[in-house]
Design goal:
Number of strands: 0
Order of helices and strands: HHHHH
Strand content: under 5%
Number of helices: 5
Largest sheet: none
Structural class: mainly alpha
Low-confidence stretches: 1-6
Shape: elongated
Oligomer: single chain
Distance between the termini: 87 Å
Length: 143
């Protein structure tokens, strides 16, 4: 291949075709495509062989677009912050929440006692609730 030649087009696989069809589904449900045009574009997406064939289906449409090989996303995904009033889990809590069902199951098989499964919601309350008995920081006067 000489430096004057263009590189060969990138071939795509089933994952890219499926992503294109899902994006077209979104555009159909948003009313950007008619049923007939949707049918034509999904047929082209299903038969596409190279990335440029998929890209041309989305030139006149806003996001969402499928991620194609060799093309970087236009923007990086934004970090998701908890909504107002929600409690973000502690970072160490993910490990505890992942291990707890396994530990509960092992303890159940060893002891044949069902109440070890109560560890699962208890750990969820500890991780997401900020600890048992701590409340939400407001004091209530009991008279």
């Amino acid at each position: 291949m000489t430096s004057g030649e263009e590189s060969s087009p990138l071939r795509i696989g089933t994952a890219e075709r499926t992503a294109a069809m899902k994006a077209l589904d979104e555009h159909l449900s948003a009313g950007r495509l008619g049923v007939e045009e949707y049918g034509e574009r999904t047929a082209k997406a299903a038969n596409a062989v190279v990335a440029s064939e998929i890209a041309e289906l989305f030139t006149d449409l806003p996001e969402p677009h499928p991620q194609l090989p060799g093309k970087a996303p236009l923007t990086a995904p934004l970090p998701v912050a908890p909504a107002a009033g929600e409690v973000a889990p502690k970072k160490d809590g993910y490990l505890l929440l992942t291990i707890t069902p396994v530990v509960a199951l092992l303890l159940f098989f060893i002891t044949k006692q069902w109440y070890f499964f109560l560890l699962i919601p208890l750990m969820g309350a500890l991780v997401y609730g900020g600890g048992v008995g701590k409340g939400n920081g407001r004091r209530r006067d009991r008279r």
